[in-house]
């Protein structure tokens, strides 16, 4: 509807459960403005299909044998396939949501969501917006804020973001620079970043730390 | 996949260890049974040590660096070495102490006991009464060959002979070199069906003896040939069928004694007891007859009436058991007389007198002064006295006494004696203050360490042992506790793994099917035209039911996931769940706990969690409350969960909420919990579940619990519940 040329939204469904595939295809097939262009029962098959078929939106299950939903998202990125993705799953752990968003999903829906929510989500994401139900958004925000960094690591991170060297941090905290290096490595690992600079920017970006100039 | 290699590795390591153990055992056994272990051997008598020797009879003692047996016992033996020694030689210097007996060496001995020929082995010795070198085989019986020789001459006591005894396969050769001679006299036998191996020993028969420079060498065929080739050597073939003659030596000696006894009968001999009557003022010269009971450190002679102490006598070399005549000056003392300036004359040799068995109290009266006695006692202390003597302090009941041992062969035994052991001691009772120092009522002078016998070790319940036991019990309890918790942990781990597997299973089947069916129902509903309200309504209900089931399945999965209940307790898990559900809304969640928090079985925790989840979901979804209270109460044997809201409330038995409540009730029943629901429209809803907990085992109540358990399971097989149901049936 939001489409100017009134073209239906072409949806590809990826789920390893045939019951879900069948149900979704039937349900979305009854909706005007949505066209189910195919269904795949795994990440590989979906990637295959996308090479030959045009689709605007992917409804992607998270847990699948072999290539998982997150893997598929990464593979899409690598194959430079530009497609909008809504995660459709029966799971809602903080980590699932967080990782899916990190991997580039624009929406997140539970499989027991009412039909109207699902249509809304598809339309919103197709229109270039993001769609997260209220409680999922709240948990996502919480997960983004929360870090599993220790108090000492947070201290180190603060100083790191101010541009201090390991030695300086060590003397400020009265610990050896070897210990500081261990802390920094642990921070890099926990934040899933590649170096200390990225650790600082990610931390500021996520609001884990605040930097006062 | 992964555990297989590690299990195989463990098996391999176990097998290797087992193999190593077996090899070590075989090696150790081979070493212990080696026919040359400990060879060559040389004695250390000169250093005053003879710990490795074991006596069978006799009064073996180390005196001035030589091994000495002062007893005339027939067949006194002292043995050492390995029972597996096979081809070897033993040599030593031998010195006879008696005029009618023999002394020598034993080879390949085993199966020894006290007694004349109570061993299996070969013996070679020098014998005085027929001036021979004698060689024979003892096997609880005696067969011998003997030989006189000009180079040996007449065998005399009190001089050193060098004796050598060799055994190679079944050839046994003995040779002796007389003093001031260089040519040995040899004698050999080839014994078919010979004794193959055994220890070495020193042995004397009817005479005391002294031994020194005992050396044992292993032997090769060349050595043997060399010995046989020597000019004085013999050719064994000559001796193969040498007739052996049984010997009995006691007869001539008895005759000797008889003669002497009759000869001395008319001398004016006094009994020792009568010496008590001797005058203090005028020392009287008397003659007594008696048996020597102790020679070192001082001479004691005893007859049937009592004992006498003879300081610095003029005497030949005396042995315990010698019958002597003593002539000297009597000096009576409080208990027993002493005889000074005495001259001692040996009448004949006889077996040592047996001790008189007395109690320590009897000995302390002084009646048995200077007499050979046997007493029992408990070892209180041990110490080294002057001149390296070994002193034992003992007591028997209230009576304490002291025993003095000579050093040398006694050292080893002395070191091993444990305090509080019960001992039997034989020795000369002395009440002279010179020995007792007025500290004990009497002192026992032991002749050798064969006079001391350990009857029983110290009582087992010593403080040391009790401490060891307590420590061991504590350690054991710790280990048990550790193992118990390990096992409990493993079990829990197994349970959690199984639950995770189940969660995955449910996720992949149930939840997905519900989702698919839900979508399908929705599709049907989408296609039905709007003029059929009944069908639409039923389809909506079906959709709702599917969604509810899906939600339930999802919740089941969440509960089954190990991290849900492992990391947090029940209350915080529920609070977490509630906060998640009301996220973004204005509902206030209050969580509180009452009573002592305690561990609750997983089964009950699960059920409470699921009921709580359902109740919270209902409240949040339908009641629209402002405050939601989660309360967990722990009682003595009860855990109660309360979910209370101040929302809309409902009329019970209505539609979907009824469905949810029935689910909760069923779940409560599964853990025998009491389920209560109170709901007033507008005012709110309160749900309470009280689950019985298994009784807690504490320090104070475990006997009660144990009794109850025993009674219910073993004594009263019909618990009261059964009785109730019967009365209902009526």
Fold topology:
The complex is a heterodimer of chains A (213) and B (730).
Chain A (H helix, E strand, L loop, with lengths): L8 E6 L3 H12 L4 E7 L2 H10 L4 E4 L8 H10 L5 E6 L4 H9 L4 E4 L4 H12 L7 H12 L5 H11 L4 H8 L3 H15 L4 H11 L7
Parallel strand pairs in A: 1-2, 1-3, 3-4, 4-5
Chain B lengths: L2 H30 L8 E2 L11 E3 L3 E4 L2 E4 L4 E7 L7 E9 L5 E9 L9 E8 L4 E8 L2 E6 L12 E9 L2 E7 L7 E6 L8 E7 L3 E10 L2 H9 L6 H4 L10 H15 L19 E11 L4 E5 L2 E5 L11 E10 L6 E12 L6 E2 L2 H5 L7 E13 L5 E7 L2 E7 L4 H7 L5 E9 L2 H4 L6 E3 L6 E5 L6 H65 L5 H28 L1 H5 L3 H12 L6 E7 L7 H22 L3 E8 L3 E8 L9 H16 L3 E7 L3 E9 L9 H14 L4 H10 L1
Helix pairs in contact in B: 8-9, 9-12, 11-12, 12-13
Describe this structure as you would to a colleague:
The complex is a heterodimer of chains A (213) and B (730). Helix content of chain A is 52%, strand content 13%. With 213 residues, chain A is an alpha/beta fold. Chain B is α+β, with helices and mostly antiparallel strands and 730 residues long. In chain B, the strands form five sheets. In chain B, strands 1, 3, 4, 6, 11, 12, 13 and 15 form an eight-stranded antiparallel beta sheet that branches. In chain B, a hairpin with a 3-residue loop joins strand 31 and strand 32. The longest helix of chain B is centred in the last third of the chain and has 65 residues.
What structural class do the secondary elements of chain A suggest?
alpha/beta
Oligomer: heterodimer
Strand content of chain A: 5-15%
Distance between the termini of chain B: 61 Å
User: Which consecutive residue ranges of chain A, at least 5 long each, have pLDDT under 50?
Assistant: none
The number of distinct helices of chain A, counting runs of at least 4 residues, comes to 10
Level of helix content of chain B?
Answer: 25-40%
- What does the average pLDDT of chain B come to? 81
Greatest interface: A-B, 24 and 25 residues
Question: Shape of chain B, please?
Answer: elongated
Mean pLDDT of chain A: 85
DSSP strand count of chain B: 32
Q: Strand share of the residues of chain B?
A: 25-35%
Main beta sheet of chain B: strand number and arrangement? Answer: 8 strands, antiparallel
């Amino acid at each position: 509807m939001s489409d100017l040329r009134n073209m239906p939204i072409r949806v590809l469904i990826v789920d390893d459960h045939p019951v879900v595939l069948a149900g979704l295809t039937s349900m979305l097939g009854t909706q005007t403005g949505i066209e189910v262009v195919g269904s795949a029962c795994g990440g590989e098959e979906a990637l295959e299909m996308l090479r030959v078929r045009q689709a605007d939106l992917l409804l992607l299950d998270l847990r699948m044998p072999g290539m998982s939903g997150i893997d598929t998202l990464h593979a899409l990125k690598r194959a430079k396939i530009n497609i909008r993705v809504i995660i459709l799953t029966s799971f809602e752990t903080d980590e699932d949501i967080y990782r899916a968003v990190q991997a580039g999903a624009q929406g997140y829906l539970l499989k027991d969501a009412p039909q109207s929510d699902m249509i809304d989500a598809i339309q919103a994401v197709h229109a270039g917006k993001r769609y997260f139900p209220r409680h999922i958004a709240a948990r996502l925000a919480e997960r983004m804020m929360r870090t599993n960094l220790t108090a000492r690591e947070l201290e180190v991170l603060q100083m790191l973001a101010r541009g201090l060297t390991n030695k300086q941090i060590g003397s400020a905290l009265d610990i050896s620079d070897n210990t500081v290096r261990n802390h920094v490595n642990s921070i890099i690992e926990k934040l899933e970043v590649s170096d200390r600079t990225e650790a600082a920017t990610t931390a500021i970006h996520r609001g884990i730390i605040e930097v006062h100039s | 996949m992964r555990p297989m290699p590690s299990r195989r590795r463990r098996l391999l390591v176990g097998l290797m260890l087992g193999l190593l153990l077996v090899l070590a055992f075989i090696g150790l056994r081979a070493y212990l049974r080696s026919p040359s272990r400990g060879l060559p051997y040389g004695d250390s008598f000169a250093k005053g040590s003879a710990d490795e020797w074991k006596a069978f009879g006799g009064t073996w003692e180390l005196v001035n660096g030589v091994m000495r047996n002062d007893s005339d016992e027939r067949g006194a033996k002292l043995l050492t070495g390995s029972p597996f020694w096979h081809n070897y030689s033993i040599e030593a210097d031998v010195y006879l102490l008696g005029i009618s007996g023999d002394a020598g060496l034993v080879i390949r001995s085993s199966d020894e006991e006290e007694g004349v020929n109570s061993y299996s082995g070969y013996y070679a010795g020098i014998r005085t009464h027929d001036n021979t070198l004698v060689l024979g085989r003892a096997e609880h019986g005696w067969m011998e060959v003997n030989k006189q020789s000009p180079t040996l001459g007449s065998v005399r006591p009190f001089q050193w002979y060098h004796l050598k005894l060799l055994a190679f396969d079944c050839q046994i050769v003995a040779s002796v070199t007389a003093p001031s001679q260089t040519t040995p006299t040899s004698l050999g036998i080839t014994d078919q069906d010979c004794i193959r191996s055994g220890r070495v020993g020193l042995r004397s028969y009817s005479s005391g003896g002294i031994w020194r420079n005992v050396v044992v060498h292993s032997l090769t065929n060349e050595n043997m040939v060399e010995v046989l080739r020597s000019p004085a050597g013999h050719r064994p073939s000559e001796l193969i069928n040498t007739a052996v003659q049984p010997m009995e030596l006691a007869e001539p000696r008895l005759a000797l004694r008889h003669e002497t006894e009759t000869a001395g009968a008319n001398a004016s001999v006094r009994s020792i007891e009568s010496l008590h009557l001797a005058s203090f003022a005028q020392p009287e010269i008397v003659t007594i007859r008696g048996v020597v009971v102790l020679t070192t450190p001082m001479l004691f002679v005893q007859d049937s009436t009592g004992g006498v102490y003879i300081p610095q006598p003029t005497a030949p070399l005396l042995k315990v058991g010698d019958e002597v005549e003593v002539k000297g000056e009597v000096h009576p003392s409080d208990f027993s007389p002493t005889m000074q300036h005495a001259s001692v004359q040996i009448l004949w040799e006889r077996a040592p007198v047996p001790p008189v068995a007395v109690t320590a109290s009897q000995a302390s009266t002084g009646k048995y002064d200077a007499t050979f006695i046997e007493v029992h006692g408990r070892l209180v202390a041990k110490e080294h006295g002057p001149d390296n003597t070994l002193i034992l302090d003992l007591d028997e009941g209230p009576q304490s006494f002291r025993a003095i041992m000579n050093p040398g062969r006694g050292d080893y035994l002395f070191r091993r004696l444990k305090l509080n052991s019960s001992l039997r001691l034989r020795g000369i009772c002395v009440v002279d203050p010179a020995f007792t120092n007025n500290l004990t009522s009497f002192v026992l002078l032991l002749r050798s360490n064969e006079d001391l016998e350990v009857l029983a070790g110290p009582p087992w319940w010593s403080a040391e042992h009790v401490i060891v036991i307590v420590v061991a019990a504590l350690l054991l309890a710790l280990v048990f506790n550790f193992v118990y918790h390990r096992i409990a942990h493993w079990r829990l781990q197994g349970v959690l793994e199984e639950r995770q597997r189940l969660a995955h299973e449910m996720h992949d089947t149930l939840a997905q099917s519900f989702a698919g069916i839900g979508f399908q129902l929705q599709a049907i509903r989408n296609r039905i035209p709007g003029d059929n309200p009944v069908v639409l309504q039923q389809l909506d209900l079906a959709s709702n039911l599917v969604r509810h089931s899906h939600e339930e399945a999802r919740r089941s999965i969440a509960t089954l996931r190990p991290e849900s209940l492992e990391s947090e307790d029940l209350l915080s898990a529920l609070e977490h769940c509630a906060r998640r559900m009301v996220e973004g809304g204005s509902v206030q969640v209050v969580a509180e706990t009452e009573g002592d928090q305690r561990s609750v079985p997983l089964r009950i925790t699960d059920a409470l969690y699921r009921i709580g989840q359902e109740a919270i979901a209902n409240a949040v979804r339908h009641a629209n409350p402002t405050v939601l209270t989660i309360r967990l109460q722990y009682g003595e044997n009860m855990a109660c969960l309360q979910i209370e809201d101040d929302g809309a409330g409902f009329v019970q038995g209505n539609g979907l909420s009824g469905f949810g409540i029935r689910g909760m009730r069923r779940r409560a029943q599964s853990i025998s919990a009491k389920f209560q629901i109170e709901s007033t429209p507008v005012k709110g809803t309160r749900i309470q579940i009280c689950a019985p907990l298994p009784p807690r085992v504490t320090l104070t109540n475990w006997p009660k619990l144990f009794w109850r358990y025993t009674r219910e399971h073993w004594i009263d097989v019909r618990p009261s519940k059964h009785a109730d149901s019967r009365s209902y049936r009526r």
